[in-house]
Amino acid sequence: MNYILFIGLIAGILTTISLLPQIIKTLKLKETRDISLLWCITIFTGIFLWVIYGFLIKDVPLIVANSVSLILVSIVLFLKLKFG
Fold first, then answer.
1. Distance (Å, rounded) from C-alpha 81 to C-alpha 11?
2. What pLDDT is recorded for position 70?
3. C-alpha distances in Å from residue 67, one per residue of 12, 51, 63, 74
4. pLDDT, position 58
5. In the CATH scheme, what is the code of domain 3-83?
6. Where are the domains of the chain?
7. Is 83 buried (19+), middle (13-18) or exposed (0-12) by CB count in 10 A?
8. Phi, psi for 41 (deg, rounded to 5)
């Protein structure tokens, strides 16, 4: 594996798992008052566009990391709308 691919994979893993603590906290507390709806919508849109970009340039690490991130941020957005 070349170092550029390795850096991309590590970056994708770190940015993706960064959403997990928020999801866990929200599920435990059933409270989303501290989460901005505008942030949720903006980050969802940005990650969605990264997925499209990844497909356009055929970059597997970009597609995989952002697809998982999109799922996780969708969960945060759903929880925000449910508990918000």
1. 29
2. 96
3. 10, 6, 6, 10
4. 95
5. 1.20.1280.290
6. 3-83
7. middle
8. -65, -40
- Token pair for 62: 């970009």
pLDDT in tens, 39-59: 999 999 999 999 999 999 998
* Contacts for 24 with CB less than 8 Å, ≥ 6 apart: none
Per-residue confidence band for 81, with pLDDT thresholds at 50, 70 and 90:
very high
CB 27 within 8 A of CB 81: no
SS (H, E, C) the chain: CCHHHHHHHHHHHHHHHCCHHHHHHHHHHCCCCCCCHHHHHHHHHHHHHHHHHHHHHCCHHHHHHHHHHHHHHHHHHHHHHHHC
The single-letter code of the amino acid at 61 is P
